[in-house]
């Protein structure tokens, strides 16, 4: 279940634009402020909360506001530095004629969906590179003073700035069996991509909605900021979004499930006004009982670890491909396993495989156990969260006038 502090965070994001008497309905008593700050950081919401908590009628303890303020300015300084470095990198890539597509936080930043760079943390620079340009990109980064992180040949670091090179959105270089669940060739993204400068692109906005939904699934819906990103994309580009095209593209990429999960959560969990009516199942597929139960659990805050992997599994149609997907997830390539356990010793890697097997078995039992359990209760979610996020759009809109 959502903790009381998480419920309070979601409500505070929404109720900032309501009259003071509405704000006062949220009791500050019995809140664990250390837990509040921890959840704020974990969900990537400290920057947003710092702005929202300055609304009239808000009375937070001074140390809490001070901690949020520090997080906001840390984001602002780090993101400004990171985006300046990105500009230098793109100039270098352009000189070497390396075609690159920006993903995740840096792509969202260039879409300007948040009024200030300090409102959303960016932890690294994610770049999509075609296979034929990967060695050139690696060399370009080394020429710029970056060094590959041990055990991670496509992760580069310099002065606390991390560059993550991807050759596919689904990270097929790590788990190649994901190709059975996701049919997203880079060429299809390049065809619709928007050029921002030289040889640098960002995905088409319609594709970006799908990509961010797939990113949420990949990380098992673990952070609220990623839901906010998609809500903000829909907020800013609502008139430019072609939902018929989005669903067709999602079906082509076999990514209807993550898109559908995300929209259902935005509607049921965040009470976000969707621009389309959702049916009982996403186009082109039917959710099974476990998938529906996972959505119910997610909405109530009972997120199940590794649920993203199960949703990949559910997207695979052939039995043999399902088996290969399970096999590679439980027993990945040696290079990937060394990254998981962060060690290259063969004996330690062997023990890592044994531990991973039992962990996978445990996660599987938890997943299927969620079907047998009673339906999750809404608890405080019904009285707090459902009302809260209905004002999220108003909350963020207020920042534009500041």
Question: What can you tell me about this protein's structure?
Answer:
With 402 residues, the chain is of the alpha/beta class. The protein has one domain. Helix content is 57%, strand content 8%. It has 19 helices and seven strands. It has helices at residues 4-15, 20-23, 33-42, 46-52, 62-95, 104-111, 134-143, 186-192, 205-218, 224-237, 243-252, 256-268, 289-299, 307-315, 319-330, 334-341, 346-372, 380-388, 392-400; strands at residues 100-103, 125-128, 147-149, 152-158, 161-166, 194-197, 200-202. Strands 3-4-5-2-1-7-6 form a seven-stranded mixed β-sheet. A hairpin with a 2-residue loop joins strand 4 (152-158) and strand 5. Helix 9 packs antiparallel against helix 10. It is globular.
Measured on Cα atoms, how large is the radius of gyration?
A: 22 Å
Count of domain modules = 1
Major sheet: size, sense and barrel closure? 7 strands, mixed
Strand content: 5-15%
**Number of beta strands:** 7
Kindly state the percentage of residues in helix.
Answer: 55-70%
Topology:
Layout: H1 4-15, H2 20-23, H3 33-42, H4 46-52, H5 62-95, E1 100-103, H6 104-111, E2 125-128, H7 134-143, E3 147-149, E4 152-158, E5 161-166, H8 186-192, E6 194-197, E7 200-202, H9 205-218, H10 224-237, H11 243-252, H12 256-268, H13 289-299, H14 307-315, H15 319-330, H16 334-341, H17 346-372, H18 380-388, H19 392-400
Parallel strand pairs: 1-7, 2-5
Antiparallel strand pairs: 1-2, 3-4, 4-5, 6-7
Helix pairs in contact: 1-3, 1-18, 3-5, 4-5, 9-10, 9-11, 9-12, 13-17, 16-17
């Amino acid at each position: 279940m959502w903790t009381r502090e998480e419920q309070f965070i979601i409500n505070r994001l929404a109720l900032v634009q309501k009259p003071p008497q509405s704000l006062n309905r949220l009791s500050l008593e019995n809140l664990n402020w250390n837990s509040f700050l921890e959840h704020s950081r974990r969900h990537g919401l400290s920057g947003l909360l710092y702005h929202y908590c300055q609304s009239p009628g808000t009375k937070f303890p001074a140390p809490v506001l001070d901690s949020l303020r520090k997080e906001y300015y840390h984001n602002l300084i780090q993101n400004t530095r990171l985006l300046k470095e990105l500009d230098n990198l793109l100039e270098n890539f352009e000189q070497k004629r390396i075609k690159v597509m920006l993903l995740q936080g840096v792509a969202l930043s260039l879409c300007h969906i948040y009024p200030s760079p300090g409102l959303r943390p960016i932890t690294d620079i994610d770049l999509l590179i075609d296979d034929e340009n990967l060695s050139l990109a690696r060399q370009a980064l080394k020429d710029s003073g970056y060094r590959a992180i041990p055990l991670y040949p496509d992760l580069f670091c310099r002065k606390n700035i991390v560059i993550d090179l991807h050759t596919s959105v689904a990270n097929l270089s790590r788990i190649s069996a994901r190709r059975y669940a996701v049919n997203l060739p880079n060429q299809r993204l390049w065809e619709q991509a928007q050029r921002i400068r030289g040889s640098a692109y960002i995905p088409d906005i319609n594709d970006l909605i799908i990509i961010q939904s797939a990113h949420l699934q990949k990380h098992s819906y673990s952070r609220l900021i990623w839901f906010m990103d998609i809500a903000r994309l829909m907020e800013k580009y609502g008139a430019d979004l072609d939902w018929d095209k989005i669903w067709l593209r999602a079906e082509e990429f076999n990514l209807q499930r993550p898109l559908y999960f995300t929209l259902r959560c935005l509607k049921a969990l965040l009470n976000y006004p969707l621009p389309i009516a959702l049916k009982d199942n996403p186009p082109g597929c039917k959710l099974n009982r476990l998938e529906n139960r996972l959505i119910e659990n997610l909405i109530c805050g009972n997120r199940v670890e590794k649920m993203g992997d199960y949703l990949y599994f559910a997207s695979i149609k052939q039995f043999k491909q399902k088996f290969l997907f399970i096999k590679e997830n439980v027993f990945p390539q040696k290079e990937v396993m060394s990254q998981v356990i962060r060690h290259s010793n063969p004996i330690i890697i062997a023990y890592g495989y044994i531990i991973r097997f039992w962990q996978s078995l445990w996660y599987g039992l938890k997943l299927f156990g969620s079907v047998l359990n009673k339906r999750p209760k809404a608890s405080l979610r019904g009285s707090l969260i459902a009302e809260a996020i209905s004002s999220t759009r108003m909350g963020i809109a207020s920042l534009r006038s500041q």
